[in-house]
């Protein structure tokens, strides 16, 4: 437990460190929310702008080097991160200028490359004022608990800036697992800032009834809350969450609480104006950088006091001169069974663009794939689409997963989906699967690019590729945490040559964060080991 | 002839990069386009080029004739065996 004095002292230390370094722009990534909050305030008081990478992957941090003068928290390899100065007497803090270029966040958008979104301090303070006006009275002064990261705008506002402004304590650690949420609420009352991804996965087996009284507020944002997740909140947690609609670009736009009415409409936040032009939802608000109308990617119908969302605006693509609606294709794919979720994306192959499907099969879909192979399911889906789409638009590539690959904000980015079609990924068939174990038959294609030059004349599959495949296949069958921490008990017993039919056994021990793998074939054991993973689950 | 059919099946799979399909999955008598394998006119173009490269066959300018040749793997094998200029 740290008090305001400790916070103030640490902010002063960070301010001194940033001022001594002398830059204008700093990247900040840290897991600990106390460190994060104090570094953020310290940078602002030193007049610097803070860039928030969405994750700490080496590529993400490396890409930021060109934009910032230094790193706080995690730094890319070869650079040293700034640390707060200790001791010394701190000069008094001056009020910050509302015009300060305070922040750059990155879109979690489902399409394309992340885009940088700059925010002035005034945008952030009006967001926080709005949250206070709407929810302060009900929230009281209980601590804020969260499943989401403060590196994104939702977590930043709800678990850092709003509590700081309202004088409410906040938990310095995110709660990655439902068991953690339960334990935190057993310890005392709190507000829970959650992602729909977490609320969708609340195990009914935990004793939620014992903590209902301690759960004083529940928030959900970052993506739509499914009807199942809503029902789980009502049944297990005893309340419907306050859902907040917005995006990294728009900030908060509207909210609602569906206590009884499943289809309750969104209530526009005070100070925010909305309108629908040809269905497209447009927003004007003090949370935006300028006083202009911003067009969102959503369709909406205005109702008194707010609006109803009608889904994403259509994603249209021109394929061999013909217009295809990817959204309509996704709707057709899930209509009437076989798939629970579907995403359609364009892939460039040679000199044509083809469509590819990433699907989450339902029980019937998995049955079809287990009995007749992946091709049977793909063929059934093509037949389902055939009456509605030109034959040249029918998808050519299919990947089936237990769950959509999501980042820590619960979004499936186009890049993550496209990666599933990478030729470096081995073709495989599921033999058995459960929540803790998967048995796969994996083909080692003779034309795999991994045999190139490894070694000329006597191709064998590199050991790092074997580990990479274990992780990649593991991610498709279990909800694994994002960060690779280390390897344990790694053994390579026999080389793997082109054309080998491997049996890959994966075991996932969620409590210890260990993904075990064993690669065998008719020739015996090839490799085994454990991959230790950590970080928050999306 | 059977051997040529096998070769053409492999050519079709490789040229069009067909997923999850082995030569034995293709019925040599089944239609290649629309129903059956579900290939389209762009696939036909690609396949025509590949046949030309592998066997030196030149497609006629008569589209009705071409449609007949491309009806199935078996029809393609017939066409290639009588028109090939390369072995």
TrEMBL record, chain B:
Instruction: State the Pfam families in the record.
Output: PP-binding
Give the range the annotation lists for the signal sequence.
none
Ranges where the Carrier domain occurs:
2-84
Entries under Gene3D superfamilies matching the protein? ACP-like
Q: What name goes with this protein? A: Acyl carrier protein
Give the species.
Corallococcus exercitus
Taxonomically, what lineage is the organism? Bacteria, Pseudomonadati, Myxococcota, Myxococcia, Myxococcales
């Amino acid at each position: 437990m740290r008090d305001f004095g400790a916070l103030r002292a640490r902010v002063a230390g960070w301010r001194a460190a940033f001022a001594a370094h002398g830059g204008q722009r700093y990247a900040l990534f840290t897991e600990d929310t106390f460190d994060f909050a104090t570094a953020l305030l310290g940078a602002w008081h030193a007049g610097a702008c803070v860039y928030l990478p969405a994750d700490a992957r080496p590529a993400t941090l490396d890409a930021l080097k060109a934009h910032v003068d230094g790193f706080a928290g995690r730094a890319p390899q070869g650079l040293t991160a700034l640390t707060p100065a200790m001791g010394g007497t701190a000069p008094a803090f001056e009020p910050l200028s509302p015009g300060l270029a305070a922040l750059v966040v990155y879109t979690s958008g489902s399409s394309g490359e992340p885009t940088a979104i700059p925010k002035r301090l005034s945008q952030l303070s009006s967001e926080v004022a709005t949250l206070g006006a709407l929810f302060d009275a009900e929230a009281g002064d209980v601590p804020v608990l969260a499943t989401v990261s403060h590196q994104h705008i939702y977590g930043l506002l709800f678990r850092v800036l709003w509590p700081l402004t309202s004088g409410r304590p906040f938990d310095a650690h995110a709660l990655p697992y439902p068991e953690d949420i339960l334990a935190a609420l057993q310890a005392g009352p709190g507000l829970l800032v959650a992602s729909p991804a977490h609320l969708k996965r609340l195990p009914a087996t935990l004793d939620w009834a014992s903590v209902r009284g301690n759960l004083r507020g529940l928030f959900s944002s970052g993506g739509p809350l499914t009807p199942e997740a809503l029902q789980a909140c009502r049944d297990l947690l005893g309340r419907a969450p306050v859902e907040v609609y917005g995006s990294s670009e728009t900030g908060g736009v509207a909210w609602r609480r569906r206590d009884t009415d499943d289809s309750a409409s969104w209530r526009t936040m005070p100070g925010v104006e909305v309108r629908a032009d040809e269905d497209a939802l447009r927003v004007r608000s003090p949370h935006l950088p300028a006083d202009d109308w911003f067009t969102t990617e959503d369709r909406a119908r205005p109702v008194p006091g707010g609006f109803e969302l009608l889904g994403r605006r259509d994603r249209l693509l021109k394929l061999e001169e013909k217009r295809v609606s990817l959204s309509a294709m996704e709707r057709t794919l899930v209509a009437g069974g076989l798939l629970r979720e579907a995403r359609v994306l364009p892939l460039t192959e040679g000199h044509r663009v083809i469509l590819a499907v990433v699907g989450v099969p339902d029980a019937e879909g998995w049955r079809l794939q287990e009995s007749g192979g992946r091709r049977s399911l793909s063929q059934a889906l093509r037949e389902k689409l055939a009456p509605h789409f030109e034959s040249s638009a029918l998808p050519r590539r299919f990947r089936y997963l237990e769950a959509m690959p999501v980042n820590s904000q619960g979004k499936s980015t186009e890049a993550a989906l496209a990666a599933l079609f990478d030729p470096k990924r081995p073709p495989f068939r599921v033999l058995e699967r459960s929540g803790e174990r998967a048995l796969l038959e994996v083909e080692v294609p003779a034309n795999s690019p991994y045999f190139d030059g490894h070694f000329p004349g006597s191709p064998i599959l590199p050991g790092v590729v074997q580990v990479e495949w274990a992780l990649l296949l593991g991610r498709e069958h279990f909800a694994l945490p994002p960060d690779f921490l280390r390897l344990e008990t790694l053994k390579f017993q026999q080389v793997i040559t082109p054309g080998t039919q491997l049996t890959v056994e994966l075991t996932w021990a969620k409590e210890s964060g260990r993904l075990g793998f064993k690669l065998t074939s008719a020739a015996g054991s090839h490799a085994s080991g454990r991959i230790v993973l950590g970080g928050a689950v999306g | 002839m059977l051997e040529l059919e096998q070769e053409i099946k492999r050519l079709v799979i490789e040229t069009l990069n067909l997923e999850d399909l082995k030569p034995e999955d293709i019925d040599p008598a089944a239609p290649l386009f629309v129903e059956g394998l579900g290939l389209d006119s762009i696939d036909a173009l690609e396949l025509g080029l590949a046949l030309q490269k592998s066997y030196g066959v030149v497609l006629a300018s008569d589209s009705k004739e071409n449609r007949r040749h491309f009806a199935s793997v078996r029809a393609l094998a017939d066409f290639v065996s009588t028109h090939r200029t390369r072995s």
